[in-house]
Amino acid sequence: MEKHILELKNIKKVFPGVCALDGVSLAFRPGEIHAIAGENGAGKSTFIKIITGAIQPTEGQIFFEGEEICSNSPIVSMKHGITAIYQEFNLFPSLTAAENIFFGRIPKKNGMVDYRKMYQDAEVLLKQLGVSISAQARVSSLSVGYQQIIEIARAVSCHAKVLIMDEPSAPLTDNETRRLFEIVERLKKDGITIIYISHRMEEIFRLCDRVSVFRDGKYIRTMEVKDTSADELIQIMVNRELGEQYPKKEYQRGKKVLEIRGLNTALLKDIHLEAYEGEILGLAGLVGAGRTEIARALFGADRIKSGVFLIDGEEVSIHKTMDAIRAGIGLIPEDRKRQGVFLRESIRHNISFAHFKGIMKGPFLSEKLDAKAASSYIESLGIKTPSAEQTAGNLSGGNQQKVVLAKWLFTDSRILIFDEPTRGIDVGAKQEIYRLMLELIDRGKVVIMISSEMPELIGMADRIVVLHEGQISGTLEKDAFTQENIMTLASGMPLQTGSEEEH
Amino acid sequence: MKKIDLSKYGIIFAWIMLVIVFSVFEPAFLKSSNIFNILRQVSIVGVCSVGMTFVILTGGMDLSVGSVIGMSTVAGALLLSNGIPIPLVFVLILLMGAAAGLFNGFFINEVGIAPIIMTLGTMTALRGVAFLLCGGFPVYGIPESFLMIGQGYLGVVPVPVILMVIVFGVGYVLLNKLPFGRSVYGIGGNTEAARLSGVNVKAVLYKVYILAGVLYALAGLILMARVNSGQAKSGEGYEMDVITGCVLGGISISGGEGRITGVVIGVLLMGTLSNGMVLMDVSEYWQKVVKGLVLILAVTLDKLVQRRQSVKA
Known about the structure:
Chain A has 503 residues and is α/β, with parallel strands linked by helices. Chain A is built from 17 helices and 24 strands. In chain A, a hairpin with a 2-residue loop joins β4 (59-64) and β5 (67-68).
């Protein structure tokens, strides 16, 4: 049997209501670069956290160099030489590069910090990695790419044997990515095993030796990178049955309501979009591709560089959220608790918050009108609550989502943007949200739906616009809806079949 | 649910308990003259606490209250002693208070300075202005007719008390009957959600700090009329009483939660405490110890309630 540095056997992790990982067994060879691929929500992050001991598996065993690690924790895994670099760095911005690298292990002399040794050691280490960062530079003054290298240097200085990198190239520029690859290859030569989480096909094929695919919390299989292709990999990543969980409907495209022309922001490049009455327009793409940015720009929540918004063929100027609301746009944001609901306010205060005019009686707010409006939405949207006075924080996720929707229905919005509408809500509530979306388009509203769950987009949307790194990489009509097509476009690769509309 | 209700009314029980304790130990305490005395004593803090309530509800803090009072008494006394007509002085001083609020609001909004730091700065700077205006000497020569708002009575009720009631009434309407109040609660509860619901957050914050400044200036005029002079030191330490009144009244220091009706009780409780301790000959030093501890106790209770709510959510 071949020797493994790290082996996981039959790992299962159950969160309340969800089985995040189901019987995953996977082994890593010493000195390999091993990619973990899978869609959002496939269980990759949970898997890493179990390796580093940040969370405990419900079942299963972890073996390091042949010995079982019992009661794993971040401290235990680090002692074994397992380190992870997350997307969010764990750095101290106001400390120097050297202090960050040696944090917790700062060299001392007579009980005082031995600055000379610390800076010398750090310089040596950074030189080994082939970068010219001053050991005395403050981390806050470094670019994201260099900050990441500080993290790597810290891992190397801890004598890491296994280094886990979670989407390391996501925040980097092309040049920084190239440098990262050089460093990763250098680490491999030094015998360090790299577990490389990535969405990006080209990186997996350029850098990695083997790739393991996760799907829906299950381990699917591991392949030698040289024996597979990007197409095959995507096929394995997304292949799954679409159940009957989406309500049926007929697509009748009405007149054009919304048009976005030449939208540019810090991230978005030249976005053109159209949305029609009676349709659900899906926005797909990887996290950070610019889906939410389009929604926020249209809603006046973020500054734009250039771009024109037209509603019913007439240009509307949207500089702040109030402009968008007046133009009939409502946003159900992705982070419900931080951006959507007022958790400490009552349901009725939440519902009327964007439309005080609707509950005024003379110069004053009328509690009576407020309660009346609230109770009509509680009934029509099926919000489960004993009364309109209930604090929104006491509602379930699905019901909170309905409260946010009610807020926009009360302002009489025509264009409703749902950003990850079903994130973190249970299956039953999901179906209710889907049903409500269909009711909305039946009433002539325009629904724009942003989702990371491809089956949901395929099941609900009438058209899907796919984004890749701030640009539209393609638009899919219903007959071309497949997870493979979406994933291909989302990875920035062209479709091979002719179903793509040119923009 | 029942426990939270208890915490809502806890402040009233605390106040009643305090009244009972004082009246047992000091029979003079419950005399009607003393009751009006308490009301008059709290009226200046009460007027300020309405402004502070708005500020804290948005999740902010305003330490400049005492210094705006000091500046207003000095500037008001100077203007009046130089024969400027009373109505004009009123307008000018309230405008000055508004300017102080605008100044706070500008740096909090546009520069992003934390409110507590910004108003710590204005607290010191405006106190300096007050001293510069008068050279450190008390300013006398306030016309007899002006003293009315600090010393006069309407029937048996002292005028400052009436002013306080009016200010609380206006505050109540603004917070509970107008969209403005909902926006204030919304910003304190969830700034981002308020912004994404079309609230112009900056505009609301400007209005809140300006309103607070105006009310502090009004309190300064009342205080000046009461002591018949403008003194640069006046209002010193008021931030303590005002903030404690708000917090005791259930205004959550993290913003977005609390009722102005609670603040009425909070302010009365602080006034009752001071008055009772004076009647019982408690030394001034001990009074400070007690007041400070009361503030800490109030915040502790607030935290405990929050923790219980977050456990529930």
